[in-house]
Structures are given as C-alpha cells and as structure tokens.
Amino acid sequence: MPVSWANPFINKWKPFTASKAPRICSVPYRILSANKNCWSSTKDGSLAVDQVPDHHGSESKEAPELHCNRRRWLLLASGSAALAEADAKEAAAQQLGSLLQEPTIKETRSLKAYNTTISTGIQAVRTPSINRGLATEDAVRTNLHMQGLIPPGRTDLQCEIDRAHAALSKCCSPLEKYQAVMTLKETNGDCFYGLMTQHLNDYLPVIYTPTVGEACQQWSSLLARPQGLYISISDLGQVTNILSNWPEDEVKVAILTDGERILGLGDLGCNGMGIPVGKAAVHTAAGGIHPRYTLPITLDVGCNRKSIREDPFYIGLRQERVRGEKYYQLVEEVVESLRQRYGPSLVIHWEDFAASNGFSLLSKYRERGYATFNDDIQATAAVTLGALMGAQRLPGVPPLRQQTFLFFGAGQANLGAAQLLVRALADEGVSEEDAKRQIWLMDSQGIVHDGRKGRPLTPQKATFARSRADAGLAEQVGKDLSRAVWLVKPATLIGAAAQGGAFSENIVRALKQVTQETYGGDARPAVFALSNPVEEAECTAQQAYDWTDGAAVFASGIALGCVAAGATEVTDSMMLAAARGISHKLTAEELQRESVLPRIERLRCSFSLAAADAHL
Questions:
Q1: 339 annotated as a binding-site residue
Q2: Which positions bind (S)-malate (predicted)?
Q3: N or C: which end of the chain has fewer CB within 10 A?
C-alpha cells in the first residue's frame, strides 16, 4: 500500500488528478534494513534480528535480539517449500530482504508536512506486514517509533488471532463480517492469515463465495481501503508506469479480471475487484503463497450495466465496454508489462472474464508458452473432475468410463470440465471420440448439436456438439431439462448455468430413477450444482439428498484451482494431475461421510499434493 494511500491526510482518492497524485514512497512495506547481515537463523528455523536500523538508516548497536517467529509461508514450486530451512540463511534472507527495507531519507522527508519520526511510526502501524497489534515485538515498537500508537499491553500472536475470532463472531451479517475480515487483512497481515489457517472452514465462505458476491455488488459503497491495482482503458500506453506504483518487486501470481462475468452476477465493472482480491487471499490461506507474491488487478474497460454506471458512488469509468482491437491492446500491454517487471515465470490467472474473451485470451497466451490459466475454465474443471474421481470411490457410483454425463450450462466452467473429463477418460483407454459421446451439453437453446439453427456454435461448443443423428432426440428435449434427463439417461448431472433452483425435485428424482434403471438398483446418481453465489445454485445438498432418499452424491462449486508458481507454463496435464491429487487425498473418514472432496480445512495439503503430482 503506497504511503500516499495509507496516509488519511494525503489520500483523498478521487479528487487527485493524474498530474497531482503524490509519489511519496512507492515501497511502504519496507521499513527495516535490507542488509542481509541484519538477519540470522535460530535453531528452530525462525529468523532473528541482530541489528535493527533506526529511522535514519544507521545501525542501532544496542538493539535487542528479536525473535521473529512469523509464519513461514510455503510457495508451491516443484512440490517443495520455497523458503529454505534453518541452515539456508541466505535463501531466507533473500526472501525477506526486499520485504523489510527502509524508505530512503529523501522518500521519508518528502512528507513535508509531517515529522519524520511520526510518519515512520504511522507507516509501520498501518503496514500489515509489520503491525501485529499487541503481539508487535518491543524492538520493533522502539525502532519503528510505534510506542503510543499501539496499546502498551503485550500478547503473543495466538492471542491476537483469538481476539479477532471473538470479535468477528459478534458480526451481525456475512457482509459485516467480510468488511471486518478485510480490514484485518489490511492492518495485521500475520493475524489475518493465522486466522484463515486456523479457521478456514469458517472464513473461506466470507472472503470468497458466497459473501464476496454481495461485497462486489456493493463494492463502490463499502469504503474499503484501496486494494489491488486498477488499470483502465484510458491508461493505454502508460501501463508500465502504473505497474511501477505497485510496492512489491517480487510477484509470482497476478490475478486479472475485467469484471464482465462476476460469479453468476454478470457485468459489475470495477466493482468486480472483490474477486481478484478475494482470490489472492484464498491463494495464501488455502494454497500457502505468501501474500506479497500476489497482485490483484482489475481492467476497467467500461460496464454495460446502466444501473451500475449511473450509481452516484460508482468507482469505475461511466461508459459502455470497449470491445475489439483496443480491448486486446490493453490486455497485451498489461501482460507484457507484468512479464517485463516480474519475469517469465509470473503466473497470469484470468478470473471472471466473459466466455468469448476467456477462451481467446487463454489460448493466445498459452500458445506463446506463458504460464497462464483461467480459473473458470481450468481450475474449476480440475476440482470438478477431482470430485467426480472422488465420487467413484463411494459405493454404488458407476465408473467414469461407463457413465453418461449431462452438463447443464455450456459456459466456461462446464466446457472446461468437459474438456478435462475427455482427457481423463482417454487416460483410462477410452478413445477421444467415444469419450465425447459420453458427454451431452445443454445450453439456453437446448441440447448442443450440429443441426441446430440460429446462432452458430462457438468452437468450444462445436467440439461437443452431438451429430445430426441425435437431432431428433434434441428436438424432443427442446429446452426442457426434465426431458433431457429421461432421454439422455445420465448418471451424473452437472449444473453451471447460474439458474437458481433449476434442479427441481422432479428432475432429481428422474435422475435417480434413470441411473438405477441403467446401472442397476443399487446405482447412485451424482448431482453437481456448481453455480455461485448460493442463490444461483441449481439445488442444495439437502434437496438432493431428500429427493433421492439419500442416494445422491452431491458436490457444490469450489473454484480454488491449482497455482503453478514457478512453472513456465500451465498445461492440461497439470490440471489432470491436480484432479487426481485432490481425489487421492480423501481420507477414510471423509469417504465414510460420503464426501467427494477433502474438507475445506485440508485444502492446503490437497493442493500441495496436486502441485507435486503435476511436477511443477
């Protein structure tokens, strides 16, 4: 967070013009010296500060030793921890060196209206990578001039985590809890990520779906502290300069959205920033990636929803979306500028783009060999396939190679899952042609087939279009999902159409009946309702169980994905390996409870295994 943003006397957000916006200190997180000699390893592998510089940059000869038992973040790279063990002093120093630097005297003194000492202390208190509340060490309080800015009490970090958890339990609504959690994230990073690690099951639905959907809808009026980077279509030709304002010099994953297809909510424009911000938090809480290695970005090219553009509080450009060449020029400039600053191993994570742009951008940059993946197309597919593989381990569920699959909705999520499913079936010895025949797609116009009139099929849909021989069946189905279930006779029904309640009781009961008629009386259907937020889900788990008398195997939407940090490309083989890794991590207890995915609180170990299996 640049100092100009963090300082309430300077930051007035919108009133600044481009020419008047202050560039006071581009590296606010860097308070301590970058001198590696300041750091040494302790026997337990934690880091100790031998000498802490004062605010003028000189060494304090009598600074007490400070044990910095900060959480040691794991970075998924080649299936191993990126931070070295206790005997790798230099590697640890390099990882933390750039994070703990001091602003130059010139940068600090450019805050002309403020005393340098006060400015440094305020910066430290408002910097989440330094402030630990009452757990802030004495040496840090002294040398960064934080005395009096933090209450005099002393606790450990666990007490701060417990305090935050107790305070959050008093919130009256999910959105109120979201605001409180994100405020914690921007003020006390260690406490926030400790809270996420210990209570992931409680807070994952808060920092991401379903609560993040409501947060995005109200983003312009939440008074949120600025997070992430906004790059607009007006910034063409200036993207490199804008990226230089981001304070971190080491970014491993950039999460990009243009806000056009936010969850199942449609075009939210700049209000979609909650998605990359939330996904960055998920990458850390569930994936173990250090928070400073993530960069959330929103590309503002306009918004086609008039009600949002006319909202007096709207934070984005008040214009319709820019399409075509100019749009792709901006994306190109952003991608190349990111790679120029952060290197070719930077992972570009596309999030909530419309299908037309999502597929084309993914294809374009994968063909160049860039490390890039689309969460909606690939990561959701990996988790969906992992759930299908997990379901196979439950009694009564037919093997994948024997099943027929009906995908309700033919957008990015279901098309990506269908593509990865074909790869999985091929690995089991099924030909690609036969694998595609096991898959039926149904969109807003009905069964996807070659003979359908109207709008031409996209290349992705055409891959799974039924032949003209199935045109008669498709005409009988029309747009009726119930008829599709009776005629197609699937064992697995997968919904990602963002049509809340689409899987009615009649449809789910029909699925159970056709599954048992086709595969035997003990066969069990699988119902995957992947749409989010919750109100857009095709049905609930309870409904699926009730309507099948407990026979259904159910999975809801989780799009956490597999982060390929350090990889030079993200391949389908990696995603397939991730799916296998997820299913293999199911424990006997989870299978007994008929879970098809590992528990949320075990997501970190699951994705670590997935990354290792993918040989990243």
A1: no
A2: 261, 532
A3: N
Least confident of 50-59, 217-226, 447-456: 50-59
Mean pLDDT of the chain: 75
DSSP line for 67-110: EE--------BTTB-SS--TT-HHHHHHHHHTTS----HHHHHT
Half-sphere exposure of residue 425, counting CA atoms within 13 Å on the CB side?
Answer: 24
What separation in angstroms does the CA of 35 have from each of 55, 358, 426? 14, 43, 54
535 is in an annotated binding site: no
181-185, 293-297, 388-392, 506-510: least confident range: 388-392
Whether residue 271 is annotated as binding a ligand: the answer is no
Whose CA is closest to 528, among 424, 393, 381? Answer: 381
- For residues 298, 303, 305, 308, the Cα torsion angle rounded to the nearest 10 degrees is 60
We find that the CATH architecture of domain 378-613 is 3-Layer(aba) Sandwich (3.40)
What is the domain partition of the chain in residue ranges? Answer: 1-155, 156-207, 223-370, 378-613
532 appears as a binding residue in the annotation:
yes
pLDDT above 60 (res 25): no
Count other Cβ atoms within 10 Å, centred on residue 51: 19
Rounded to whole angstroms, the Cα distance separating 460 from 578 reads 22
Distance of alpha carbon 374 from alpha carbon 362, whole angstroms: 7
The residue type found at 318 is R
Residue found under tokens 């991730």:
578
Asked, colleague to colleague, whether 223-370 and 378-613 share their fold, the answer is yes
Q: Topology of domain 223-370, per CATH?
A: Rossmann fold (3.40.50)
Of 587 and 137, the structure prediction assigns the larger pLDDT to 137
Q: Is 230 a catalytic residue?
A: no
Between CA 312 and CA 333 the distance in angstroms is 30
Q: CB under 8 Å to 241, separation ≥6 — which residues?
A: none
Do 608 and 283 contact (CB within 8 A), yes or no?
no
Mean pLDDT in residue range 321-334: 96
Distance, CA of 409 to CA of 384 (rounded, Å): 14
Q: Per-residue pLDDT tens for 147-177?
A: 999 999 999 999 999 999 999 999 999 999 9
d(C-alpha 232, C-alpha 304), whole Å:
15
pLDDT, one tens digit per residue, over 558-595 is 323 333 333 445 667 766 776 776 676 777 777 776 66
Catalytic residue among 279, 436, 461, 512: 279
The answer to whether the beta carbons of residues 551 and 512 sit under 8 Å apart is yes
370 among known catalytic residues: no
374 is in an annotated binding site: no
Assess contact for 73 and 288: CB atoms under 8 A. yes
Look at 271 and 225; give whichever has higher pLDDT. 271
